Amino acid sequence: MQTAPRSAAPTTLSDAELRDLDAWWRAANYLSVGQIYLMGNPLLRKPLRPEHIKPRLLGHWGTTPGLNFVYAHLNRAITARDLNMIYVMGPGHGGPGPVAASWLEGTYSDIYPDVSRDEAGMERLFTQFSFPGGIPSHVAPETPGSIHEGGELGYALSHAYGAAFDNPDLVVAAVVGDGEAETGALATSWHSTKFVDPRRDGAVLPILHLNGYKIANPTVLARIDHDELDWLLRGYGHDPIVVEGADPDDMHRRFADALDRALNRISEIQHQARESGRSDRPAWPMIVLRSPKGWTGPAQVDGLPVEGTWRSHQVPFANARNDDDHRDILEKWLRSYRPEELFDEDGAPAAQIRDLHPRGTRRMSANPHANGGPLVRDLALPDFRDYAVPVGSPGSESAESTRVLGAFLRDIMRGNMSTFRMFAPDENNSNRLGTVLEATARTWNAEILPGDERLAPDGRVMEILSEHTCQGWLEGYLLTGRHGLFSCYEAFIHIVDSMFNQHAKWLRTTNDIQWRRPIPSLNYLLTSHVWRQDHNGFSHQDPGFIDHVVNKKADVIRVYLPPDANTLLSVADHCLRSRQYVNVIVAGKQPELQYLDMDDAIVHCTKGIGIWEWAGTDRGVEPDVVLGCAGDVPTMETLAAVEILLEWFPDLKIRVVNVVDLMRLQDDREHPHGLSGTDFDALFTTDKPVIFAYHGYPWLIHRLTYRRTNHDNFHVRGYKEEGTTTTPFDMCVMNQIDRFNLAKDVIDRVARIQPVAAHAREHLKNKLIEHGQYIRAHGEDLPEIADWHWQGIDSR
Question: Xylulose 5-phosphate/Fructose 6-phosphate phosphoketolase N-terminal domain location, by residue (predicted)?
């Protein structure tokens, strides 16, 4: 048997305040139902007829009245306390609610003048919702005040905390739906309380909205014992206040009191921390709101219960256009909100409603933090050239490229201590970026034990073993106008595939929304990559995130494969300065050969693709073969193949083309970074064989180049899902991207050397056999492989 919940006691909310709150809530509910059902007769000034009903009914009603209820109360608190607050709505399908709220507040009409605050504008507001040429049913980018679409569930809290970091005056009210609360991403994000510093960060007020059902099933947290839920939330670090019921007047009083108590406690926590200079982790307040699913909707339809059941999750009844009984239910439902009291003769919100929201940018639908672009300040970036690795001759010396980058990031952090953070799932040091800890500690506001290193509440390196939470924090940080970098093992970035999808779609959509200003790019650094995961084995070997990324619209995605430290520095500087992209940088963390000095690296990265003249023998003549490469290990193996080939065939004319910006391979008609046909043919010829060594799955190169004149002569080597725990070079051999197989590919495709190539082919096959025997006897690569460096063409 469930015990009685600990509920908020009745507040001193006056009768007049209660009437005003309820009127605003009824108006928002009326507008929400109208958006789902109506395309005419918006104020019901004549009987409802079939032509007034949309032919296709789309949208989600069940969560919307609860969202509207919370919004109304937040507006009261903002006005009373002059709060700087934004609203994150986890149940994204409750889109009618925030659209209605922003129309009532006037923001919607300010941004979209054709959706005016009158009868004609209301009709347009209704018709456009989930309608061709209109707006989506989610809390989409088109919705003023939104930084969180919620098309996929699970990220409301992580987005909210990302927005709150380094925003000391901001309160983020984050509604978590009880369906959303079942996701793994959401479950982990409750731990964000251990990463908040009340001295310098804003606050998140979670509101767990339990209405009992998902699409067709009950929800877990709504069906567990009240004490069990209380223990769970307290275990996450919260002090929950429960508001439960269905009677509107009682619920208004109880929720107003709960909200005041929660906001008072947030104010106390922040005041104490900022006055004392201490950052002891408190139990942060939160609210649990239990209300009926589809609250205030029809109690029954066709003899079946609707309000308070799963049947109200989406459209409570779907045939109002053709069924007289359904249409009668709809009309009675709409009239139950008493629209004649809520809207004046012109259809504008009545005076009582117009005065019930904050003014100017205190409106949640107009808060600048919900449109982060106008708030962005450029990073103060040091000159990346100052971190250059000296390169006397190409390929003669080694360095850990990401460790070099770490020094650059350290000084970026030092110069941007309130606008730049780094995010990693416990992999910052593993990825050789530990130098940044010279500038700041890791963010940590839980227990710190003797022996722990570089943990502090005011640290700025965000590490939690949850890729979802890192991504969500970073997205919230970017969407509110700050900058960041997410480093991750390449194989496990797939965990956030769907989150990347949502963010890329957000960027793509906002490119067409004039009032949404560009935000800093989402920058991924993927290291511990497929070719140097030989020690961790098959489970850690997957370069497929690139394939996933390039499926998105060309105007928002970029992929970079710098082959050494200086090109990595140049690429990182470019990406951190950019806006409105998702940038994927793949770079190895292990010691690797360095090829370009900084001047050459800048030129090469600026072009994104180019001939490495020092590595080829075709200057002034037509090449016999083109060797293309993209990625650090493929580049090394390509250069080693060049040396082998020239030992056997000194007169072979080889051209080496290295690719840093992967999208340069695509046609310029498909991607803004793409090469024209003329430029591509100048590099890769129109008829010569091309052996291309690529970091990832080889078929992606074929996808990117399929329209090219010489595509039929492209032969691509890459990762083909062969891997295990083995030596670094054996990983290349298993996938036939090694120097011996690349050299053999050239022999097999250059007709003029084939008659004299028999001994060379035998030598290459013998070297592969020798390699296999050696690693099984010694557990490491042949010395000639492990110690190889580029000798240079001139030495031959």
Answer: 13-373
Between residues 278 and 66, the one the model is more confident about: 66
- SS3 state of residue 152: coil
3-state secondary structure of 64: helix
Can you state the angle between helices 15-37 and 248-276, rounded to 10 degrees?
110
Which residues are within 8 A (CB) of 704 and not within 5 positions of it... i.e. 6 or more apart?
550, 662, 663, 665, 666
pLDDT digits (tens, 9 = 90+) for 249-275: 999 999 999 999 999 999 999 999 999
Q: Could you tell me which of 188, 210, 192, 209 has the C-alpha nearest to residue 201?
A: 192
Q: Which residues contact 218 (CB under 8 A, 6 or more apart)?
A: 212, 310
Architecture of domain 15-369: 3-Layer(aba) Sandwich (3.40)
Looking at the chain, how many residues does it have?
A: 796
CATH architecture of 609-795: 3-Layer(aba) Sandwich (3.40)
Q: Which residue has the tokens 């922003």?
A: 102
**Strand bridging mode 284-290 / 238-244:** parallel
Q: Model confidence at 6, in pLDDT bands (50, 70, 90)?
A: very low
For β-strands 397-400 and 461-463, DSSP reports them as unpaired
pLDDT tens figures, 195-226: 999 999 999 999 999 999 988 899 999 999 99
How large is the average pLDDT for residues 151-173?
A: 95
pTM given for the model = 0.95
| 4-to-7, 232, 282, 418, 690 alpha-carbon distances in Å | 8, 16, 26, 44, 73
Give the DSSP letter of residue 222.
T
**How many angstroms separate the CA atoms of 369 and 379, rounded?**
18
Yes or no: say if 208 and 180 are a contact pair by the CB < 8 Å rule: no
Q: What is the pLDDT of residue 7?
A: 45
- CATH of region 381-592, choose from 3.40.50.970, 3.40.350.10, 3.40.50.2000, 3.50.50.60: 3.40.50.970
Q: How confident is the model at residue 8 (pLDDT cuts 50, 70, 90)?
A: very low
Q: Cα–Cα distance between 453 and 362 in angstroms, integer? A: 41
455-456 and 397-400 strand pairing: unpaired
Task: Name the CA dihedral angle for 209, 212, 216, 219, rounded to a multiple of 10 degrees.
Answer: 80
Q: Which amino acid is at 727?
A: T
DSSP state of 27: H
Q: What DSSP state is assigned to residue 213?
A: B
Using an 8 Å Cβ cutoff, are 478 and 449 in contact? no
- Going by C-alpha positions, the residue among 532, 179, 577, 217 that lies closest to residue 378 is 577
pLDDT at 791 over 80: yes
Q: Which two tokens stand for residue 372?
A: 């982060």
Give the Å distances, CA to CA, from 221 to 192, 213, 578: 20, 10, 42
What's the rounded Cα separation, in Å, for the pair 260 and 73?
10
Closest by CA position to 403, among listed 431, 440, 426, 423: 431
**Where does the chain hold its CATH 3.40.50.920 domain(s)?**
609-795
Query: Is 541 in contact with 601 (CB distance < 8 Å)?
Result: no
For residue 198, list its beta bridge partners: none
In eight-state DSSP terms, residue 343 is B
Q: What CA–CA distances, in Å, run from 317 to 19, 31, 174, 305, 671?
A: 30, 17, 29, 11, 45
Closest by CA to 543, choosing from 557, 529, 553, 532, is 529
> What is the torsional sign of CA 501, 506, 507, 508?
positive
pLDDT of 795 > 90? The answer is no
* Whether residue 10 has pLDDT greater than 80: no
Whether residue 12 has pLDDT greater than 80 = no
Q: Dig out the tokens for 698 from the structure.
A: 């080889």
Q: Report the C-alpha gap between 423 and 487 in whole angstroms.
A: 6
For helices 248-276 and 64-81, angle between their N-to-C axes, nearest 10 degrees: 50
**What residue ranges of the chain are covered by domains with CATH 3.40.50.970?**
15-369, 381-592
